[in-house]
Structure formats: C-alpha cells, structure tokens
Amino acid sequence: MLWSLLLLPLMLAGYVWLLRRKRQQVVSFSAVSWILQNMDLPSPWRRHVPPALIGIAMALLLFASARPMARVTLPADYMTLIMAMDVSRSMLAEDVEPSRIKAAQKAAKEFLQDLPKNVRVGIVSFAGNAQVVQHVSQDKDELVAAIDRFQLQRGTATGSGLLLALSTLRPEAQIDLEAALYNTNPFGYSDQGKSGGAKSLDAKPVAKERAPEPPGSYKGGAIVLLSDGRRTTGPDPLLAAKRAADLGVRVYTVGFGTPNGFIPGYEGYSFFTKVDEESLKAIAKITEADYFKAGSAEDLKQVYKHLSTQFTMEKRDTEITALLSGLALLLVFIALLLSALWFKIGPQNSFKSFVR
After folding, report:
1. With the C-alpha atoms ordered 21, 24, 25, 31, is the resulting torsion angle positive or negative?
2. How would you class 286 by CB atoms within 10 Å of its CB: exposed for 0-12, middle for 13-18, buried for 19 or more?
3. Both 259 and 214 in a single domain?
C-alpha cells in the first residue's frame, strides 16, 4: 500500500496544470476601472492553502492504508516487579549517609509507596547466596516490613540474585535453580552407570527447552537489580542476564555507592568497596533495559522515582491507522471551512468567483 503514495506527485502535477490552464483564459472588458471596483483580490497564498490541506489529508489516508505501527507511550497493564537487593556487607560503607544499606532501604520503601495499585512486587535479597524475602504481593506494609528485615551477609552473588528474581517473576519457565545456583555433582560422578548406562536415582528429567523470546518482549513484569559491589561467588551474572533476555524480561540495574566507599574498622579491618559498573551496564544492555548510577541517597531516590514512571507508563508498538485517518478527516474539514470563509459564492460574488 505504500506504493500508492506515488499518486501524490500525479495529484500535484494535475494541480499545477489546472493553475496554468486558468491563466490562459482571457475575458475582455471595456473599462478596467469597473473591474477594479467590483473585485476584491485575495491574498496570493490563500488559494493554495485548501488544496494543500487536501493533499496532506490524502497522503495521510494513503499512508494509513498500509496499517503503520508506532512505538507510543501508554498506561502499563497489570504487571509484576521483582526487586533484587544486594545485602552484602559492603553495604555498610558510609560514603552514603548514614550508610549504603540504610539509604537503600529508605529509597526502596519510598519507591514502593509511589507505585500504582496495578503493580505487584516481590523482593529478593542476595549476598553469598540469594533468597526470597517477600513473595509477590500488593500489600505495601508487608513489602516495607520485608525490606526492614534485611540481614547483611558475606559475599556478593549477583548472578544468584538475578536468577532467583527471574524464577520468581516467571515460574512457568521452570528454571532449575538447584543446578544453576549449586554444584549438584561436586565430585564429578557420571549419571550413567557401567551397566546399560542407567541414570542415578536422583537424576531429574531434562526440561524441555523453551524457544527464545525477543529481548524486552515480556510485558508482564520486570526486574530491578541494585548492587554496590563486584561479584565474588555464584554464577556469572552475564549468563543470568542472557537467560533473562531469552525470556524477554528486562533487568534494570542500579549501581549504588561512590568509588571511594569503604567500611571503617569492620571486624578489625578496613577495606574499600567499588561498584562493578561494567557488569551492571552489560546486564541492562543484554536485556534491553537501562542502567542507573546513584552516588548518594538523593541520587538513588531520583533513580527510583524515574523507575516508578517507567512502570506506570510503558512503550508499546501500536497500530496508528485510526489516528492518521482521524487527522486526515480533520484536515479535510479545515480545508472546507477555509474555502467557505475565504471564497464565498453568492449572487453578488459571482463575478469575483469567476475571476478567481
């Protein structure tokens, strides 16, 4: 249908031909003064405005016939959000007042209060391992209480937190968390015996592989992952991000803290903590989401405020045929209205209409 737009140059050529044809028409009068007294010359551009509007309307209608799609921002449907929060001991760093963990808890709780009612939330915490702190719920009091229950632990297993959040968001994907998070065969024993290749008694049936979904295509929810340090244990977070991308899930990442963050005098030691921005940026890029850097409590608050807007309104591919058709009809109506106002036809204006 887009080939039909080639009709527009033909329409323009026809309009120019009609203008030239009118100029060739000559009428003789004996007194020029009489003509000037009985005609009111219009502005030279007025005669072209209504035809131009009709031409634009025709272009819109021809384009609309191709049923075009546009990515527009619309109110989000009912969705689920999983918050994966880093609770490693590096969150004790005091480069963010009063500490990273306190600032993160406060910002997260304010974020929950700003979310609309159509968004359900689940909370996952991760350090050396990952756990579901609060199952998916709409009860904001339960969610706030879960954030207050955070217990700091050793290690940073970013990949474990992401996989557990992904499994919580999309349980139908049947992610084998035991195989992904733990080494189920530490001694390297084979599942096949020497006689007949029989499998071990605790062997699990192989799950049917799912066909990969386009990254960012899942509209039922998303994951927000906040971390302040580098992965020290657990599966590779980039491989976990690839799994999320294959399920169409976006993972928004937040790097929290400053380059000079340190924990003073903890268990007799003082050590520096640094955000692994490269990995967090890569996770967001793989899943077609966004990465945010927060170096202060106020920055983190603004990040969460922006994220609440992201989940309230979402970009969606939508057919805009009706919109273009309505705009075309509006232009036609304006063209007819201007023609009626500028080029009135009546008994007393018959000569003016003839000259024009």
Report:
1. positive
2. buried
3. yes
pTM > 0.70: yes or no: no
Percentages helix, strand, coil for the chain (3-state, rounded to 5) are 45, 20, 35
pLDDT at 26: 55
User: With left for phi above 0 and alpha for psi between -120 and 50, is residue 199 left, alpha or beta?
Assistant: beta
Q: Can you give the CATH number for the domain in which 96 is found?
A: 3.40.50.410
* Closest residue by Cα to residue 166 from 178, 175, 154, 157: 175
Residues of the chain with pLDDT under 50: 186-201, 270, 272, 345-356
Q: Are 167 and 175 in contact (CB under 8 A)?
A: yes
> Are residues 60 and 93 both part of a single domain?
no
Give the Å distances, CA to CA, from 250 to 218, 226, 282, 317. Answer: 8, 14, 12, 16
Q: Which of 121, 85, 117 is nearest to 103 (CA)?
A: 85
Same domain, 163 and 289: yes
d(CA 249, CA 218): 5
Residues pairing with 124 in the sheet: 84, 132
Distance CA 343, CA 345 (A): 6
DSSP state of 208: P
Tally the domains of the chain: 2
Rounded to 5°, the CA angle 127-164-73 comes to 110
Q: Give the whole-angstrom CA distance, residue 11 versus residue 107.
A: 60
Domain co-membership, 51 together with 81 = no
d(CA 292, CA 254): 5
For residues 273 and 228, the answer to whether their CB atoms sit within 8 Å is yes
